[in-house]
Backbone:
């Protein structure tokens, strides 16, 4: 029997101290953390994971200062 492999998906995170909202594509949270650390290592301790089920649930601030 073949074991099902997890499908890659987006893991969203924010780094409030530097006003960053970003995401990585990974098969699991452990891999997502590794990928985020590669880019954001110096501020990784400030990183906060956002856990939406769908992309539409990610609420990013709009550029004009109002959120939708």
Residues:
């Amino acid at each position: 029997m073949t074991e099902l492999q997890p499908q890659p998906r987006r893991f969203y995170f924010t780094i409030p101290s530097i006003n960053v909202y970003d995401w990585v594509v990974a098969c699991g949270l452990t891999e997502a953390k590794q990928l985020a650390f590669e880019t954001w290592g110096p501020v990784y301790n400030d990183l906060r994971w956002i856990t939406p089920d769908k992309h539409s649930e990610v609420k990013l601030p709009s550029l004009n200062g109002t959120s939708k």
Q: What stands out?
A: Strands lie at 9-15, 20-26, 48-50. The chain is about 20% helix and 25% strand. Residues 18 and 32 are 20 Å apart (CA to CA). The first strand starts at residue 9 and ends at 15.
